[in-house]
Backbone:
């Protein structure tokens, strides 16, 4: 049974992304736990749709950036611009200065550009010309990436992977969801009305911490089943070799 406060949010996002209830719940748990989210899958699986739906449902200010090979760090952080009237430089903020950054196809950008995200994701601030600037609260990076077999992609460095609390894969929809998609029963993300706001999300984040999944289930305590539900998404991208393979197998049996 879901939390009465969060069930409308889950239902609304479920009308946009059909047949992916578990992925939606995991994504919500990630945001409630103040974590950044990485969604990895083939093109056309609904990655960007989920990201836009999450941002709109929470009523958060968001910016979408396509991480192309020619994207520069300053395109994210912004630059200092000279103001002739005051004879001084002022920061022209980039898209990082938003509550949600939609980093689309993040693994197509250069490592130098991706490094611009490290300070922002870890500390909630960015440095431009040696001056540190705080980012809005809440601040969340929700990134999508295509598989490494796609042309123009590169693996994310371990230091950046570790900044993401969860990594999800949506996969193909089931038969019922496919029929609903073909009959155009899915709503566009732009149709979602905000069901919470930034202050509401911050209040839920203060209540959750490690209890985010329990909060979604309408409980104020953690059970072993809660740990099992989130462990693969939280731990698999931080493991290598046999350990990652074993954890993926456990997820398949759950």
Residues:
């Amino acid at each position: 049974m879901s939390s009465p406060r969060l069930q409308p949010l889950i239902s609304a996002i479920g009308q946009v992304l059909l047949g992916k209830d578990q992925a939606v719940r995991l994504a919500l748990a990630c945001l409630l736990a103040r974590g950044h989210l990485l969604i990895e899958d083939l093109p056309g699986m609904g990655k960007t749709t989920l990201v836009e739906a999450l941002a709109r449902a929470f009523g958060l200010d968001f910016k979408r950036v396509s991480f192309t090979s020619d994207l520069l760090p300053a395109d994210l952080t912004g630059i200092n611009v000279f103001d002739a009237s005051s004879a001084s430089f002022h920061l022209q903020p980039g898209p990082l200065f938003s509550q949600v950054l939609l980093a689309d196809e993040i693994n197509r950008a250069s490592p130098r550009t991706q490094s611009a995200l490290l300070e922002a994701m870890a500390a909630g601030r960015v440095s431009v010309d040696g001056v540190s600037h705080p980012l809005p609260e809440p601040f969340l990076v929700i990134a999508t990436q295509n598989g490494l077999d796609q042309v123009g992609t590169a693996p994310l460095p371990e230091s950046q992977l570790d900044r993401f609390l969860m990594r999800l894969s949506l996969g193909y929809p089931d038969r019922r969801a496919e029929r609903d998609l073909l009959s155009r029963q899915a709503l566009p993300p732009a149709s979602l009305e905000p069901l919470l706001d930034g202050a509401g999300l911050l209040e839920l984040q203060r209540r959750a911490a490690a209890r985010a999944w329990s909060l979604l289930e309408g409980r104020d305590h953690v059970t072993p089943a809660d740990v099992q539900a989130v462990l693969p998404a939280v731990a698999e991208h931080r493991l290598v070799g046999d350990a990652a393979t074993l954890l993926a197998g456990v997820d398949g049996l759950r």
About this structure: DSSP finds eleven helices and nine strands in the chain.
